[in-house]
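Incident review: delayed structure delivery

Summary: a single-chain prediction request sat in the queue longer than the usual turnaround. Root cause was a stuck worker, restarted by the on-call engineer. No data loss occurred. The affected request and its eventual output are reproduced below so the record is complete for anyone auditing the incident later.

Affected input:
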Amino acid sequence: MTAVQDESTLVAALRAGDEAAFAALLDAYGGPMRRLALSFVRNAAVADEVVQEAWLGVLRGIERFEGRSSLRTWLFTILANTARTRAQREARSVPFSSLDDEAAGGDSPTVDPSRFLNPRFPGGWTTFPEPWDVPEERLLARETRARIEAAIAELPPAQRAVISLRDVEGWPAEEVCNVLGVSESNQRVLLHRARAKVRAALERYLAPEPQ
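Output delivered after worker restart:
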């Protein structure tokens, strides 16, 4: 059975009120939906409410799903719209209308400008990014993963949403653009900035201990 047929079968089951189909969808996307919701709202309890409201929107709207996008894209677009509305109402998060400004350069520099102040080679690196010459087990250690998650959590909302979908969930760029309503160029800038900041945080964490 092809992926399209699988999705058609799932949609039909959801329309028929199949609880097992809904549970399978919840298992597959519940965690990623909550993580994306936390890109819009900082409060975990509010994020949980956003996810619940989005699921209700899915159940109410499944009859109108026309398959113009994948079921996943449709589902996460409902979540993003729900979270965006809630964030603006709560006034606890930067509205995603600021996405273009942030991507256009309103944010802080991607890399500390002082690292380019090289008197011998203007514009060249003074201090290069630190190589991660550390044991693989440390890179994969629980505390390292926790540090990555903490660095992502500190990103501006737009960057946090893009890197969460691209690098944590492994989504393609086109689908991220569709869900978040951003252009391809802005998505690239946001992802670049987010990755640079997370890498900088890991550089500080993985730096060799002073002797």
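Verification: The chain has a mean pLDDT of 80.
Action items: add queue-age alerting; document worker restart procedure.
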